[in-house]
Description:
Layout: H1 8-140, H2 147-165
Helix pairs in contact: 1-2
Amino acid sequence: MDALGIEWPLFLSQLVNFLILIVLLRMFLYQPILNMLAARKERIVQSMKDAERVSAAAREAEADKAKVLDEARREGQEIRAQATRDAEKIAQDVRSRAEQEATEIRMKAQADAQKQVELALADANKQIADLAIMATEKLLGRELANKAEQQRFVAEFLSEAGSKGK
Length: 166
């Protein structure tokens, strides 16, 4: 091999140096790089799993949000419908109470009017009786002896005349 220009001691020393360099590079450079790449690969896989989990959680949260919004809309419509029903009921109660009060007022007014009419008729009957007694006294030219008896007689006459007139 001398003809090729290869010197064996130099070749062996370079071969040993090369093998030592390979062992040292493998121990201190290649293995840490492989470990770092494996750790990076594991982090990427974990990140992908986390991203998928977050995405699923986001979809679930969106579905929950939609469900909550639908429930809130439904409850709002129920509350609005209940408020409408309550308002209609209150309005009906107010109307019926007003009608009842109006009826009571009409009945009381009619009773008061009837009482006033009766009082006016009684007063008119008394005045008529007094006038009849005075006219009788003037015609006779003297006072009647029993005025109470005369008043009773005139009252009976007026009540009979009043019942016939009805």
